[in-house]
Amino acid sequence: MHTVYNVLILFGDRLPTMKKFKEKHLTLREKILESIRDAIISGAMTPGSRVSEPELAERFGISRTPIREAFRQLESEGYLKVIPRKGAVVSAYTPKDIEEFYAIKSILEGYAARLACSRLTEKEIDRLLAINNRLAELNILSDVKQFFKVHSDFHDLFIKAADNDKLREMINLLVTRFQRLRLMSISRPGRMAVSVEEHEKIIAAFRERNCEAAELLVRKNAEYGGKVLLDESACRPGEAMDL
């Protein structure tokens, strides 16, 4: 079973030096978040693996408080499951989890696109184009992490333009809870290039004020995100996926 030492082995001399231990807890907390996320995404830590709070505290030279805060955030993002009196373990997903998440995401974001279609200004549509051009550059650079962040900016822009606070809140809660799945999907070979192409079609629909097409394209975009994960899984329905 993998433990926190996988994180240490994986990142080696990239972990903070003793000098950096004097930095603010928030900075150290972010380093812990990044290390654990990367270890899980890379497969160095697999579903069910225990993430030891005492070991992290000792290795990073800090108290357990910022580590517990990091664990709570990672749990909210779907990376960990914190079990009372037992500690944190890497979460597992089933194909059913993936199907349900992307089905709901496609419906909510598709509706947001329909609402946004008649509300987006030309300046905002130009901004969507600029974001997508940046995504095309990041795809060439194979920068998955930055692509993921900028990709979220693209969706956030038209979701905000939908001008429905409750809808935006629901989408934000959903995508945050399943952030791990979204990052895994984006990191699949060829997925970033497909995403850029899909965005071009969405932008064109927005410019034409074709709200029905915009909704369908956004839904297709979300559904494809789940498909690439399910297609690459050898798991049978109901089994935990090694994500």
In short:
The chain is mostly helical. Helix content is 68%, strand content 4%. It is elongated and about 55 Å long.
Characterise this structure.
The two termini are 15 Å apart. 68% of the residues lie in helices and 4% in strands. It is elongated. Helix 2 crosses helix 4 and helix 10 (191-207) packs antiparallel against helix 11 (211-231). The chain has a three-stranded antiparallel β-sheet with strand order 1-3-2. The chain has 243 residues and is mainly α. The protein has two domains: 5-90, Arc Repressor Mutant, subunit A, CATH 1.10.10.10; 95-231, GntR ligand-binding domain-like (Four Helix Bundle (Hemerythrin (Met), subunit A)).
Summed up, the helix count is: 11
Which percent range fits the helix content?
55-70%
The major pleated sheet works out as: 3 strands, antiparallel
SS-based structural class? mainly alpha
Blueprint of the fold:
Elements: H1 5-11, H2 25-42, E1 50-51, H3 53-60, H4 64-76, E2 80-83, E3 87-90, H5 95-117, H6 122-141, H7 144-161, H8 165-177, H9 179-186, H10 191-207, H11 211-231
Antiparallel strand pairs: 1-3, 2-3
Helix pairs in contact: 1-2, 2-4, 5-7, 5-8, 5-11, 6-7, 6-10, 9-11, 10-11
